[in-house]
Amino acid sequence: MENRADFSLIGLRELHHLSLLPGSDFAQLYAAYLEVGRRLLGLSIGIVSRIEDGDYEVLAVQPGDGGISTGDHFPLGDTYCSTVVSKQGSVALHHVGELEEMRSHPVYVGMQLESYIAVPLYVQGEIFGTLNFSDPVPRHEPFSIEEMEFLELMGKSLGQALEQDHLDQQRQLAVNKMEENMALFEGAFRHAAIGMAIVSPQGGWMRVNQALCNILGYDEQSLLASDFQTITHPDDLEKDLNHVQALLAGKRNSYWMKKRYFHQDGRIVWVLLAVSIVRNADGTPRYFLSQIEDVSAQVTAERALRQKQDELEQLNQELADMARTDPLTGLNNRLVLMESLRQEFRRCERSREPISVVFMDVDYFKHYNDTYGHMEGDVALQAVAAALRPVIRDTDVLARYGGEEFVALLPTANVQAAEGVAERCRHAVAGIASLSAQVSLSVGVATLLPCGEADEAKDPEALLSAADQALYAAKEAGRNCVRTALL
Q: Which one, 103, 125, 162, 183, has least CB within 10 Å?
């Protein structure tokens, strides 16, 4: 457990360092990810690939002198990564030569790569490529869950950087288009090319310029024979008429609004309308002077930009959630558990209320994995998590501690309540009927009962350690049972 914890901690630190790298220099980014992956996984070859229409392109490779170079192209079917694409998920092979169906694979025949681990890189929901590591030397044992989780987090992090770059490019294109349109509008205005009209107090067009005819698609005579009410979108007409009435009543001298006109061909034209009133000498309305600028492209660009901003905010939220969620089970991860444990421990010290921890371990899980395979093992862990959720209150914290271990933090729960939760968890898991074989839990319960100044010598880790020791006692007692420790 200690080695797994050390690897997870080191992996989180490395991921944090990678997240701080600038996303604009992908050569540097790829090199950093490959160096970290090779070092932590103990594999000699690392590749970032781009996969498109059955073509496998090497975007980056370490080392660069191993027969594969950046820019090389291969048929996807001639690579181990074809399995990643077909599975749409992670692949880990610790000794390829032991697999009869893989001995004739082009990569194995040509390069004798014995160990291989890879994850897909997703950009906007589609597989962009893979992040993969390999070595001619087989591993003595299969890749661990911690190694798989670490590489999956690396893949998600790199995929997020690729997706962010893609969104930034799209957003910049939208911004460039909007700036271009604004420049065109300004130029047209300086040269009196924006739509201009003199409109009667009743709304009829009295004079129009060619630019307005071009905007609306009508010739001059057709416009002069109509009024602005006829071609205004009905959803904008009432607002426009209210502004007009305010001008006629002398409450204001001008207004502007964004509105929609119907083009002669039936499509909608967005315009920025500025209207001022010209009065006779006696103050009675004479006509309206209207300036009409076509802003359809700007509206489209603004909507596209808002959409990209919303997508960016969603991606940022997903990244924040990913850092606090176990990717396999969807439960809280160890980081959330330890934060909550420290917070509740301090609250317990103030309120003098009890606090309990339930430490659970799936019995003989290694044997289950060895018998049914890691994919079925993952399914089993997901089923265990699903069975535990309804047992745990919303005010409690349920987390995957690591591997096949789960922890429930129960604020304010005394030892009897905690033992009840532990037994319900054990029965819930024992009742899972959808797996290849029945699974069970060994459970350790630890409860801190505040009683005075002596508690100051205790700490959250001591409570967790006590629950772990109780779990060990449950295993010693034959497994599939609950044992309790008091602090």
A: 125
Name the pLDDT band for 25 (thresholds 50, 70, 90): confident
Helices 145-190 & 26-41, crossing angle to 10 degrees?
170
The secondary structure of the chain, three-state, reads: CHHHHHHHHHHHHHHHHHHCCCCCCHHHHHHHHHHHHHHHHCCCEEEEEEEECCEEEEEEEECCCCCCCCCCEEEHHHCCHHHHHHHCCCEEECCHHHCHHHCCCHHHHHHCCCEEEEEEEEECCEEEEEEEEEECCCCCCCCCHHHHHHHHHHHHHHHHHHHHHHHHHHHHHHHHHHHHHHHHHHHHHHCCCCEEEEECCCCEEEEECHHHHHHHCCCHHHHHCCEHHHHECHHHHHHHHHHHHHHHCCCCCEEEEEEEEECCCCCEEEEEEEEEEEECCCCCEEEEEEEEEECHHHHHHHHHHHHHHHHHHHHHHHHHHHCCECCCCCCECHHHHHHHHHHHHHHHHHHCCCEEEEEEEECCHHHHHHHHCHHHHHHHHHHHHHHHHHHCCCCCEEEEEECCEEEEEEECCCHHHHHHHHHHHHHHHHCCCCCCCCCCEEEEEEEECCCCHHHHHCCHHHHHHHHHHHHHHHHHCCCCCEEEEEC
Q: Tell me how far apart the alpha carbons of residues 202 and 437 are, in angstroms, rounded to a whole number.
A: 83
pLDDT at 186: 45
Cα–Cα distance measured from residue 194 to residue 190, given in angstroms and rounded to the nearest whole number? 9
Q: Distance between CA atoms of 153 and 335, rounded to whole angstroms?
A: 15
- 159 closest CA partner among 128, 200, 191: 128
Of the candidates 128, 125, 101, 97, the residue with the CA atom closest to the CA atom of residue 116: 97
* Cα separation, 118 vs 131, whole angstroms: 6
Average pLDDT over residues 192-203: 85
What region, left, alpha or beta, does residue 124 occupy, with left being phi > 0 and alpha being psi -120 to 50 degrees? Answer: left
346's tokens: 């301090």
Which amino acid makes up residue 316?
A: N
Q: Which of 15-24, 349-358, 388-397, 474-483 has the lowest mean pLDDT?
A: 15-24
Q: How many residues does the chain have?
A: 487
Q: What is the pTM of this model?
A: 0.41
